[in-house]
Design brief:
By secondary structure, this protein is α+β, with helices and mostly antiparallel strands. The chain is built from 17 helices and 22 strands. Bound molecules: ligand MV4. Ligand MV4 binds next to strand 8.
Length: about 500
């Protein structure tokens, strides 16, 4: 049985994992870089080990340093969180070699799903629908031209070692095919050391819907329904919700079955996510499989009623899943907003710095997974995520109202944040109606961004109008005063025309 877990991560996810460990009576071990000496996960953990300089590639991404800390602390297992080494097959393999349980899938599964061409081939062999396109690496420009002729423009050229939008090119015109191929390959080579690319038919205005998966070491695999993740900015998810407003019971059943088939095809063990694209005719296509816990997992936890980290640890302990598929039912509606230290009015530039004041929302149906505190300095070395704000209510409408209330309560000073931008999203008609896809932010940029200026003008006007009302009130009082003195001169003198309202 796992008695001590080293969390090879930082920020909110490290604290989140440590909370489940504490509830399970498992000792938690933190690792921290120079910049994280005062971070909450270091204070929260039962033990903490310094692993080096602030830059990730000298600390959180250093396999040897993480393994060294695990050995020093005698941690029986490592939880990788998300990002960093969470989908690094070499790290999973090294843990196994060192006799340390990696809380996640095997190195082989991480490799297969990390290579998008092999992931597609696996899905095709399992009967899971994939986007029409190639099954193998595009080895020549001639091959590319024939493929494009076959499936038709527009197409997406994607890096096999990519994912999350990295190394991707949309090609709409014949004249751009070759240059786009060359650009995609050189970007992939530079970013991943692997320039294999494949082609997919471009799905216009898709939804980005993912299914949570759990698999144990006894061959059991279940899905925990969907998460709608279409509100994205530059491939960065901003708001997620479950259930998806697009979903129908039939679509959910079919996508859920295919997600389970996909996981069973690779004998998946652990928590994973199958990402799909869904078009406006409700056709769905496998996009990618993420072999880690997702940032947005809390909305599934709330609507399904499960602790996914506890499930991960129980699976790593060799236990059977705590639920059967028939036990999985959605209750209510949850949203997650990602609160970032960045400036939406300055192209979302990161805004690290000192947290002068923070008051997080509380009350019925509100959860915040965060790690900052008053006096904490958000470092510039890492993703500027401050926290995730999760709300739940019985219906989507009530959940929207609750998220707006919680965002209203959320006060942070000292750094710029995305809170105001998030509030605007929850006021946008398309979003409120649940009628949005992956183009939502660009389709509503006026309301979301220019709206601020208009709102500012409105606010200025409101202030001026209020001042005018004040002056008019003073004026009325003067006139009243003058009339009481019955002095004609005063009355005429005091009678000025109403100040014009703007
Ligand atoms: C696509 C697509 C449309 N057609 N593939 C891949 C990585 C993931 N983060 C988004 N990806 C997409 N792949 C085909 N064949 C649309 C997306 C997509 C997207 C693309 C560009 C900009 C924003 C996007 C948000 C969600 C999905």
């Amino acid at each position: 049985m796992i008695k001590k877990v080293l969390i090879a991560n930082r920020g909110e996810i490290a604290v989140r994992v440590m909370r489940s460990c504490r509830e399970m009576g498992i000792i938690s071990v933190a690792v921290f870089s120079e910049a994280d000496r005062a971070s909450l996960h270091v204070r929260y953990a039962d033990e903490a080990y310094f692993i080096g300089p602030s830059p990730s590639n000298e600390s959180y991404l250093c396999i040897d340093k993480i393994i060294d800390a695990a050995k020093k602390s005698s941690a029986g297992a490592i939880h990788p969180g998300y990002g960093f080494l969470s989908e690094n097959a070499e790290f999973s393999k090294r843990c196994k070699k060192e006799g340390i349980i990696f809380i996640g899938p095997s190195a082989d599964v991480i490799s297969v799903m990390g290579d998008k061409i092999s992931a597609r081939q696996t899905m095709i062999n399992s009967g899971v629908p994939v986007v029409p396109g190639t099954k193998e690496n595009i080895t020549s420009e001639k091959k590319l031209l024939s493929v494009v002729k076959e499936i038709g423009l527009p197409v997406m050229i994607k890096a096999s070692a990519g994912g999350g939008g990295k190394g991707m090119r949309l090609v709409k015109n014949e004249k751009d095919i070759i240059s786009s191929l060359r650009a995609a390959k050189s970007e992939a080579k530079a970013a991943f050391g692997n320039d294999d690319v494949y082609i997919e038919k471009y799905i216009e205005s898709p939804h980005h819907i993912e299914f949570q998966i759990l698999g144990d070491t006894h061959g059991n695999v279940i899905h925990l329904c969907e998460r709608e993740c279409s509100v994205q900015r530059r491939h960065q998810k901003v708001v997620e919700e479950t259930p998806s407003p697009l979903m129908t019971p039939e679509l959910r059943e079919n996508m859920g079955k295919d997600a389970v088939s996909a996981a069973k095809a690779v004998k998946y063990v652990g928590a994973g996510t199958i990402e799909f694209l869904v078009d406006d005719k409700l056709n769905y296509y496998f996009l990618e499989m993420n072999t880690r816990l997702q940032v947005e997992h809390p909305i599934t936890e709330r609507v399904i009623g499960i602790d996914l980290v506890k499930e991960q640890i129980n699976i790593a302990n060799g236990k059977k899943l705590s639920r059967k598929q028939n036990d999985i039912h959605q209750n209510g509606h949850a949203f997650e907003c990602r609160i970032y230290a960045e400036d939406p009015e300055n192209n979302f530039m990161p805004s690290p710095g000192l947290i002068k004041h923070i008051r997080e929302p509380l009350g019925l149906g509100v959860r915040t997974d965060g790690y900052v505190y008053e006096g904490y300095n958000i470092p510039l070395f890492y993703d500027p995520l401050i926290s995730k704000l999760i709300v739940w209510a019985k219906t989507r409408e009530e959940s929207i109202a609750r998220m707006k209330r919680a965002l209203h309560e959320y006060k942070i000073t000292g750094v710029k944040t995305s809170i105001k931008f998030l509030k605007k999203i929850f006021e946008t008609p398309d979003f409120v109606k649940g009628k949005y896809d992956t183009h939502f932010i660009q389709n509503n940029d006026e309301f979301l961004f220019l709206g601020d200026d208009c709102n500012q003008t409105c606010r200025d006007m409101a202030i001026i109008t209020a001042y005018m009302d004040y002056l008019n009130k003073i004026n009325e009082i003067n006139i009243e005063h003058a009339s009481v003195n019955k002095n004609e001169k005063w009355k005429n003198y005091g009678r000025r025309k109403n100040l014009q309202r703007l």
